[in-house]
Amino acid sequence: MPINIPNGLPAKEILESEKIFALEEDVARKQDIRPLRIAILNLMPKKIETETQILRLISKSPLQVDIDFMKVSNHVSKNTSADHLLKFYDDFSMLKENHYDGLIITGAPVEHLEYEDVDYWQELCTIMEWSKSHVYSTVHICWGAQAGLYYHYGIQKHLLPHKVFGIFPQLLCDEYNFLTNGFDEVHMTPHSRHTAIDEEALAEVKELEVLSRSNTTGSNIIATRDFRRIFIMGHLEYGKDTLAQEYFRDLNQGKEIQIPYNYFPEDDPSKEPLFKWRAHANLLYRNWLNYVYQMTPFDLKELTTG
């Protein structure tokens, strides 16, 4: 939440230089208050698990948030019951007239496919185009981030020789960026992917800023300078046991899978993993919600194309 300060307080300029929201009393009194409206396009197979992970992060903010769950219409989910989807999810066609403060586009286990070969690619493109005029800020996660970078900026992905799988330290690139304000200079992020983006192509897009990265995993958090589009290459929303579940699932299916890096104590899968990224995940989503709370118009229909 922003802090309310006396009119003309000298500290205001310093706080603003550190990207801290400080509202003078006259402005604070005039603020209209309403719940934030967030839509979640959940493309993950285990939708209930992903719902819980994302809502856990959003709930850490003191702001009131109204949630709509969105699904693509031309893809049949094999891991979530039709009853659950019918009760809690709407097709994009049912939500497209709405305006939102924020949209979250999750990852999906389709990175082995070319984007155009994904059965819901055209609908996803329609949603990402719609977000320009109907959403203030969109967070793209993992494959959703790669897809967003490809759709908006033409940045390609490529297969890696080995899966990036584990908990990787990331170096903070901008201490006073709104989105990562309060982050330690090094923070941990779970990654679980077989592909990476073209870093050279990314560097050519001046509209985008890399907020954290690693020599091992590449760019980690990327955003436009106005935060209308945010791309998270890892899975900060993951729960403590998510990587363990993925590891044992693949192991039991006879797939080739390495022990997740920097995850199990002493690389011993019999030992309980440590939750090393929770604080930064909570902080990132609080910062995001705080930002859109400050920046979106009271009447969301006043949103302009971003």
From TrEMBL:
Catalytic activity, EC: 2.3.1.31
Keywords: Acyltransferase, Amino-acid biosynthesis, Cytoplasm, Methionine biosynthesis, Transferase
Record-listed substrate binding positions: 163, 192, 249
InterPro entries: Class_I_gatase-like, HST_MetA, MetA_family
Reaction(s) catalysed (UniProt annotation): L-homoserine + acetyl-CoA = O-acetyl-L-homoserine + CoA
Biological process annotations from GO: L-methionine biosynthetic process from homoserine via O-succinyl-L-homoserine and cystathionine
Important for substrate specificity, annotated site positions: 192
Keyword Acyltransferase: yes
Role noted for this protein: Transfers an acetyl group from acetyl-CoA to L-homoserine, forming acetyl-L-homoserine.
Family: Belongs to the MetA family.
Protein name from the UniProt record: Homoserine O-acetyltransferase
Native species: Longicatena caecimuris
Name of the gene this protein is made from: metAA
